[in-house]
Amino acid sequence: MIAVSTLLNELYASGVTAQREGEQLVLDGPRSAFTEDFINKLRANKQELLSCLEWKALFNERAAIAERDGGYPRLAAELIAFEDCIDQWLCANPPHCTDSSVCLHCGKPLEEGTVVPVTVVGDAGRRGALHTICAGRWRSLRRWEGKTTLIWLLQP
Ligand SMILES: [Zn+2]
After folding, report:
1. Sign of the alpha-carbon dihedral angle for 99, 103, 108, 111
2. Ligand 1 mean position to 85 CA, how many Å?
3. By mean pLDDT, which of 7-11, 88-92, 99-103, 149-153 is the weakest?
4. Which residues lie below 8 Å from residue 53, measured CB to CB, with a gap of 6+?
5. Strand partners, 130
6. How close is the Cα of 121 to the center of ligand 1, in Å?
7. Cα(144) to centroid of ligand 1, in Å?
8. Which of 35, 43, 74, 114 is least surrounded, with the fewest CB atoms within 10 Å of its CB?
C-alpha cells in the first residue's frame, strides 16, 4: 500500500483530487496531469487507490472528531485517529488460523492443562490460540503490522 500511497501523493502534487464514489475512482484536475503512463498506473492500481481513499477518509474523520469534539491539538488528534485506524485494520485483517493446537506466535504445541491459552478469532471465524506468555508479544507484532501498513496516513 505504500507504493499506492505514493501514487496518491503524485496525484495531489499534480493538482488532481481523488474521491471514492462506491467502486468508482473519481478524479478531477488539469488535463496535462493525465498522461497515458499515469492513467495506466491509475488503472493498474485502482482497487488499492480506492482502499487508500477509504482509509484516508476514515483517518480524516477520526482526526476531525478528536480535534473538534475532543479538543485535542491537530497532532494529537491525528495520532488518536491513527490508532483508531490501526484498530479498524486489525478487525479487517484477522489472523490466519489453521491449527488451534499450536501457538499462533511461537508455533509450539499448546500443552493442555498446564497453561491456559489465550484464544483469538481468526479469518473465516476460525479459532487460534496463544501461550499466555506469547500473547503480549503477538499482539504487539500484529499492531506493528497494522502501523507499518498504514504509516502513510501520517504523511502530509
Ligand atoms: Zn507460544
Report:
1. negative
2. 27
3. 7-11
4. 8, 18, 19, 20, 25
5. 118
6. 16
7. 18
8. 114
77 close to 63: Cβ distance less than 8 angstroms? yes
**Owner of C-alpha cell 496535462:** 32
User: Residue 99 has which C-alpha cell?
Assistant: 491449527
Interatomic CA distance for residues 142 and 94, integer angstroms: 9
pLDDT digits (tens, 9 = 90+) for 44-90: 999 999 999 999 999 999 999 999 999 999 999 999 999 999 999 99
Q: Residue type for 42, please?
A: L
For residue 142, the CA-to-ligand 1 centroid distance in Å is: 14
The amino acid that residue 85 corresponds to is C
Domain positions in the chain are: 2-94+143-154
**Across-strand partners of 102?**
109
Please name the helix (run of DSSP H) or strand (run of DSSP E) that holds residue 125, with its range, or none: none
